[in-house]
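Reviewer 2 asked us to include a model.

Predict the structure of this chain.
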Amino acid sequence: MTEPLSAAHHARTILAAHEHRRQIPPLTGWDRSLDLPAAYRIAEEVRRLRAARGERAVGRKIGFTNTTLWDRYGVHAPIWGHVYDTTLRDRDALPGPVALAAFVEPRIEPEIVFGLARAPEPGMDAQALIGCLDWAAAGFEIVQSLYPGWRFAAPDTVAAFGLHGLLVVGERVRIVPADGQAWIGRLADFTVDLLRDGAIADRGGGRNVLGTGPLAALGHLVDVLANDPAAPPLAAGEIVTTGTLTDALPIVRGQSWRARLDGLPLPGIDLAII
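Predicted model (structure tokens):
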């Protein structure tokens, strides 16, 4: 019987594909031993290799929190991956449009992004979680698939750093403790229009994220990390993006995108693509 390939081998394969902008067959298609725990070991090896070349992990992305998309992608629980200083940009600091040459089969996702004032703990309710936040913002995550046609199994997505390409964060709005209860309700009930070249391409809202909103995604991540001794827990100062509020739509050069929020005290965010 063939021995399972090592996490280091898979990590090098994933990083080489990413660096050369080439797609590869899903890992699960030729390594039948690859399950989710093994995929997270690959992701940790990827993080180690990226750190060795100077990249610094600054936060987490939570993927597949939009339950309306689970059946389409064959993924039925959230995943997570690292966000790096090389894959994070503030919208106001962008020198111009985002170049698609760096990504493979890119798609765009409007998301709610949190900045942590303190480390959340497992089992926290919404009130406790909101008390851990320093700020919130609208954001765009550009996701990508190293696997042709966006066809994969859940372990493939985890190994390929959660399909993360770039996180662009809009204006950061401080969350005042006295307003915490109001934020909880708004984060569940707000809606978003995703506009492409000025026309609505999709609509979504807070409840697409695990049924009750982005805070549920944060709580889920905290609990998952607590049950994985190999995964570093969240820390104060980290950035967490909580998953797409709409469908993840393909992007091409020359487009202009905007996320317009209603029901949250957050400005929208726009992004031009070249």
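The radius of gyration is 18 Å. Helices lie at 7-19, 36-52, 70-73, 126-130, 154-159, 180-189, 214-226. We have added this to the supplementary material.
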